[in-house]
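Researcher: Let's try something more involved. This one mixes different molecule types, so please make sure each is placed in the same coordinate frame as the others.
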Amino acid sequence: MKEAAKPTARVEAFSDGVLAIVITLLVLEIRTPHLHDILSKHEALEALRLLTPKFASFLLSFAYVAVFWVNHHHFFNLIADISPGLIWLNNLLLLFLCFVPFPTAMIGEYPSNPVALALFSMVLMGAGIVFTLMWRYAYKRGLMASSVGKHAAKAAVRSGLFGPPLYAIAAIGAFFAPGIAWAIFCAVPLFFFFHSMHLPEGF
Amino acid sequence: MKEAAKPTARVEAFSDGVLAIVITLLVLEIRTPHLHDILSKHEALEALRLLTPKFASFLLSFAYVAVFWVNHHHFFNLIADISPGLIWLNNLLLLFLCFVPFPTAMIGEYPSNPVALALFSMVLMGAGIVFTLMWRYAYKRGLMASSVGKHAAKAAVRSGLFGPPLYAIAAIGAFFAPGIAWAIFCAVPLFFFFHSMHLPEGF
Amino acid sequence: MKEAAKPTARVEAFSDGVLAIVITLLVLEIRTPHLHDILSKHEALEALRLLTPKFASFLLSFAYVAVFWVNHHHFFNLIADISPGLIWLNNLLLLFLCFVPFPTAMIGEYPSNPVALALFSMVLMGAGIVFTLMWRYAYKRGLMASSVGKHAAKAAVRSGLFGPPLYAIAAIGAFFAPGIAWAIFCAVPLFFFFHSMHLPEGF
Amino acid sequence: MKEAAKPTARVEAFSDGVLAIVITLLVLEIRTPHLHDILSKHEALEALRLLTPKFASFLLSFAYVAVFWVNHHHFFNLIADISPGLIWLNNLLLLFLCFVPFPTAMIGEYPSNPVALALFSMVLMGAGIVFTLMWRYAYKRGLMASSVGKHAAKAAVRSGLFGPPLYAIAAIGAFFAPGIAWAIFCAVPLFFFFHSMHLPEGF
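Model: All components are placed in one shared frame. Result:
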């Protein structure tokens, strides 16, 4: 047996790998426009303009995966031990996050299609719910050694209650006006960004 | 020479990388449906419905790779030293797992084709056999320092005998009814999931 | 809580993952030429010759990502602690670097199109500015424990002032003669390569 | 500054990432055959049979990257310190290895085309020469602390002389009979495989 092995080291490494790949694969959905062999300046600008929804969905999903990575990092910093249950909850989280490139491509291709927007919404909702369950599980099972961890877990479970209703509004709202969904999709990572800025140094 | 180097650290890092990439690449096989420039709600739903076999094969292969990752993690936690033979057995395991996206795409594209299902079956059988050989090798070569490790190795080699006959039944059964293969493909990761839930904390 | 956890370990691991994937994905833009089922020697050579701009843009972006990796490595070697602000600046850097495969594909496909060249220029400018901000931020916030780090930060912020004007010249020059942009794109990584060769051993 | 930082840790992590991605991307070149919506058994078998050269080139490149990984692991195990020069030699090695998927796809698509085979040959020759230079550099610069390392370096530089002539024969031989190149491509990783089996435990 290894001596100084951190029990969570490999779960973190595997999760880092998956999140790094997801965040990097997103750009593959933005294909080079191929019109003629040689494009004029105006054709090139027009081709880029037509890709706007793809750039927007790329930015959005990048922001979501980055937010998940920051919070995942924060979570495992507070975890003292690992259990099979936590690993499988983490695998379920990775399942939702691995799937993100598909709804990202859908809303990039059909930015005003309510079905595409609802799908994007539901995948993020799934990831959010599972992550909240991870905090709850770790707290209940006593995998957090410190009082700092217990306090953070309570706060995370509380703030995790905001996400699902918002995503539900986005999914339903998309059928009335796509802008509702897009507005919520932009607001949520901004909220988490500002939230994470208040985490302590060396969090 | 590095002092505190864990002898298995880099093999674990490389394997984590490969498994993380395989599990994340699987989604690339699910291509955005492209019918018209703008899809109606019903066309979008119909397009998603037509992708059902791709979603199913994605979920299945995700589950298999996740199960292999959990067991691989468990295995290397019990290994005290590395040898060239173990590294090459591990490379052979990674070969089968790296190949998984191809049969996954095949059964996603042709979900009732017996040749595709038999191929999927045989790749998983290969991975399962090599992993059982890894446990056996590590046990025989004394690479497991603790009695916990030796006990786990015996159990793993024993339970490794169940997989190959099941995969063989799936491969042959696919030629009679594709449902036989799909049922077995779903049952095996579920079995390993429940099995891994009984592993000790910090496993 | 883990005891000996290096506060920057997971940020480095995640960044390493992202950079490793970006640098490896670049080759995917070079597609196998598919003319007939069987190519003659001359057709194969001609097909490779036609891919020259793709090879050139591959080499260029490889060099840029490699330079960023070396400097990123140097940066985090000098950082003693992490803060949410630094993590988000790092995420912003990764956003620009994750996007690199797209402008790389654009200049590989349209090597003399000024819009494509300006886009490539601006993405690199963005990455360069964010990286300079990271040095500045780490210095101002006292995240660098040693005097070596403080000295390196000042030097990095100073040398970071050279990049943006050069990229601006490349972006504007591309509209007059594409060769101007290409010359600057080749010169910048060479400069950073020679610069990094003067870093101390074990940097 | 971090205290217990292994100077080579991040170079190893980055290289592991790149090699893991290269080895996993290879399978993406094997595209699902798409003939009709539903394939008969015989059509599916025939489609797989037509993919034989792609499977062969996948296996070959997998073996090469695996061999490079094993030797890279062995190399960095013996390295006590890092220098900018060694990092850039390593980057140059990664450049050749990152490029491998392209010639792999070429020989998978055109298995008897001498230009494709010569390209594959030259990329491997490049990687082999750079790796030999890395051993030489590390030895000359005294980056190997132990006598074991110095001995291994001498042996590696010596055995590194065998590769380039063989690859040159493969490249030239391909213009006379493609089988010459394929035979050499198969023999070299087998040689390195048997060679690496004699490395000491915990190498």
